[in-house]
């Protein structure tokens, strides 16, 4: 990312952004290939194992629900016998794989920053302040997020993903995949199991729903959430996505060292001054320096470059 006299800062960042977009476009297919062929040469063993664990856990939950509806003595017997096959069907969805991949990267970053910078993955200074808010709704949402973030940490350590934590579109797709997989079973039983799972699903009370509600309710104060040391990884990524008009999963992936240009543009587009962007880089990528001339890049131009970027199309 070193500019030359012939390459102004926008051209340098545009080149890096295009290179990053090429990587983004391969994420879904590569993860699917790795899960199917057990070839970990392109991604770390930890990330691939975590994605595989989350997809398998989703499959097990849906089959367990069917076993409970059938009133089997051991509802888990279906997952033991058919869980791998259903997980393979779920893994054909690039949208689901890229979401699980983003969650795995989010947890990996949270773990790294906890070890290197003592940033708590659950209770951060910003969340503490929001819990102590005089505004009852804000304090209540912050408390709910605290509990949800604890569950997220526990689930990631077990390489699991609760079905109710999926975004709405992915939850619906997972259930449709499960229904197709179970085709041939008693329709009334399938409908009852499906209804039970849908009745328990409320996207607004999921971790991602609470994050969006909390950050959205901060108004101009959301700027404080753009400090990863103050806000923590979860709130920081949500605020960066909201303020730069990006998908949250894409914002999470931008923290990877293969997406430095996207991270810089997202933070500048979100309204951070160049020195503030540099401070975030010092925390996330201390070995990286921003290119000469970055201070000349306007926030609106950074947003335009992001909007024109290909990003990804996981569907």
Brief overview, please?
This protein has 315 residues and is mostly helical.
Helix-strand makeup class:
mainly alpha
Helicity range of the residues? 55-70%
What gap, in angstroms, lies between the N and C termini?
A: 31 Å
Q: What is the alpha-carbon Rg in Å?
A: 21 Å
Largest β-sheet summary: none
Number of helices: 15
Which blocks of ≥5 consecutive residues have pLDDT under 50? 37-42
- Which descriptor suits the 3D outline? globular
* Helix and strand run: HHHHHHHHHHHHHHH
Number of domains: 1
Give the averaged pLDDT, no decimals: 91
Approximate strand percentage: under 5%
Instruction: Report the count of strand segments.
Output: 0
Describe this protein's structure.
There is one protein chain. With 315 residues, the protein is mainly α. The chain has one domain. Helix content is 67%, strand content 0%. It contains 15 helices and no strands. The chain has helices spanning 9-37, 45-69, 77-90, 94-117, 125-131, 136-157, 168-181, 187-200, 207-216, 228-231, 233-243, 248-253, 260-269, 274-284, 299-308. Helix 5 packs across helix 6 and helix 9 packs across helix 11 (233-243). The radius of gyration is 21 Å and the shape is globular. The chain starts with 8 loop residues before the first helix and ends in a 7-residue tail after the last helix. Residues 37-42 have low confidence and may be disordered.
Topology of this protein?
Layout: H1 9-37, H2 45-69, H3 77-90, H4 94-117, H5 125-131, H6 136-157, H7 168-181, H8 187-200, H9 207-216, H10 228-231, H11 233-243, H12 248-253, H13 260-269, H14 274-284, H15 299-308
């Amino acid at each position: 990312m070193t500019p030359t006299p012939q390459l102004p800062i926008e051209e340098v960042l545009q080149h890096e952004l295009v290179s990053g977009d090429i990587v983004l476009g391969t994420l879904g297919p590569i993860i699917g290939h790795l899960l199917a062929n057990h070839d970990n040469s392109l991604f770390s063993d930890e990330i691939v194992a975590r994605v595989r664990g989350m997809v398998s856990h989703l499959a097990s939950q849906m089959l367990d629900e069917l076993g409970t509806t059938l009133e089997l003595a051991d509802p888990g017997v279906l997952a033991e016998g058919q869980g791998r096959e259903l997980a393979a069907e779920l893994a054909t969805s690039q949208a689901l794989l890229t979401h699980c991949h983003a969650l795995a990267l989010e947890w990996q970053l949270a773990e790294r920053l906890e070890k290197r910078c003592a940033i708590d993955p659950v209770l951060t200074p910003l969340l503490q302040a929001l819990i102590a808010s005089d505004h009852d709704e804000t304090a209540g949402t912050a408390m709910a997020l605290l509990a949800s973030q604890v569950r997220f940490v526990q689930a990631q350590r077990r390489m699991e993903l609760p079905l109710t934590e999926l975004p709405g579109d992915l939850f619906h797709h997972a259930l449709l995949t499960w229904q197709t997989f179970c085709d041939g079973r008693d329709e009334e039983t399938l409908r009852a199991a499906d209804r039970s799972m849908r009745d328990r699903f409320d996207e607004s009370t999921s971790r991602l729903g609470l994050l969006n509600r909390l950050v959205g309710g901060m108004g101009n104060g959301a700027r404080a959430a753009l400090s990863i040391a103050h806000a923590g990884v979860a709130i920081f990524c949500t605020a960066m996505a909201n303020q730069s008009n990006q998908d949250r999963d894409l914002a999470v992936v931008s923290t990877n060292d293969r997406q430095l240009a996207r991270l810089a543009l997202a933070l500048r587009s979100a309204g951070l001054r160049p020195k503030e962007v540099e401070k975030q880089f010092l925390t996330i990528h201390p070995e990286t320096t921003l290119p000469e001339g970055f201070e000349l890049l306007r926030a609106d131009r950074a947003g335009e470059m992001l909007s024109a970027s290909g990003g990804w199309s996981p569907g």
